[in-house]
Amino acid sequence: MLKILTSKKLYINIFAIFTLSIVLLIATVYSLDSFTRHGEEIEVPNFSGFYLDDIEKDALYSNLQFTITDSIFNKDAEKGSIFAQSPEAGTMVKEGRNIYLTVIALLPEMVCMPELRDLSLRSAKSKLQTYGIEITKLSYVPNIAKNAVIDVMYNDEEIFADDKLEKGSGVELVLGLGSHRELIKVPLLIGMTHQEAEDELHLASLNIGEENFEEGDDKSTVRVYRQLPHYSEKPTVKQGQKIQLFYKSDENFDFEKHLKTIRPSNSITDSLINSENLDE
Asked: Between these two residues, 274 and 170, which has the higher pLDDT value?
């Protein structure tokens, strides 16, 4: 037994077995790395605005897989284009990773026009929002029911409850003047986004007039820096009057500082001068 334990051949065999085990372990690790593409990652591009057919034909994206999981309606985007993706652009993923896409629906979503007649302007606006319908214009006609909906117009034609129209469409509300057409205050719109300014004007029984974009016409990235007629604490304009808006990007303009310089007393005269020029 002692002779066997001290045999040189035994130690050689043990060393060989140990060495072979190490080699097999290393080979296994490398084979697993190769199988799982360990360390072979690519950055996910931004596919927003592209079309699936185009990117699937592009050899640059042949190392990725694509699956459409949802579609949405967006009137401002190209039908069939990619709207969102998961993983997001800039994410590092392994080759062959599946990219899940949300695309703009090819066919617009249709909705039924709700009944608005005799509702107040505020109630009608709230109801339209739940249906995805916008207000593009407010008009006023002689009627004792002040700010109540008298008629609803779509493409210059009267539209009725349960009529079908595309989601995102805009309608004109015809409202009652009340006993007389009174003057109303001009709200302060400086610093507001396009949507915020439109909502504020409609609630004040006013309309958006000419819009001026000094730094691009992307309504999602600009805010109002000037308005005509100007903001006034006193009633100076008629119901339904148009307010001209000027936009700047908030990246290059200090709106907070600008707001501090605005004084109602300095704008009343300008409002009176501009009111007739901007009237419908």
From this structure: 170
* 140, 176 Cβ separation under 8 angstroms: yes
Question: Per-residue pLDDT for 105 more than 90?
Answer: no
| DSSP secondary structure string for all residues of 104-173 | E-SSPPEEEPPP-TT-BHHHHHHHHHHHT-EEEEEEEESBSSTTBEEEEEETTEE--TT-EEETT-EEEE
- Cβ atoms of residues 138 and 206 within 8 Å: yes
Q: Which residue has the higher pLDDT, 263 or 122?
A: 122
Torsion sign over Cα 120, 122, 127, 129: positive
**Of all residues in the chain, what percent carry a pLDDT higher than 90?**
44
Count of residues for the chain?
280
Name the nearest CA neighbour of 172 among 154, 159, 160, 199.
154
Global pTM?
0.58
> For residues 152 and 158, is the Cβ–Cβ distance under 8 A?
yes
**Contact (Cβ atoms closer than 8 angstroms) between residue 102 and residue 74:** no
Tell me how far apart the alpha carbons of residues 210 and 217 are, in angstroms, rounded to a whole number.
Answer: 13
Over range 207-231, report the average pLDDT.
86
Averaged pLDDT, 218-242: 87
CB neighbours of 137 closer than 8 A, spacing ≥ 6? 170, 172, 173, 207
Give the tokens for residue 14.
């043990």
CB atoms within 10 A of CB 264: 15
Per residue in 162-175, pLDDT (tens digit) is 999 988 899 999 99
| Cβ burial, residue 94 (10 Å; 0-12/13-18/19+) | middle
Cα Rg of the chain, angstroms: 33
For the chain, list the domains and their CATH numbers. 41-104 (3.30.10.20), 108-181 (3.30.10.20), 183-280 (3.30.10.20)
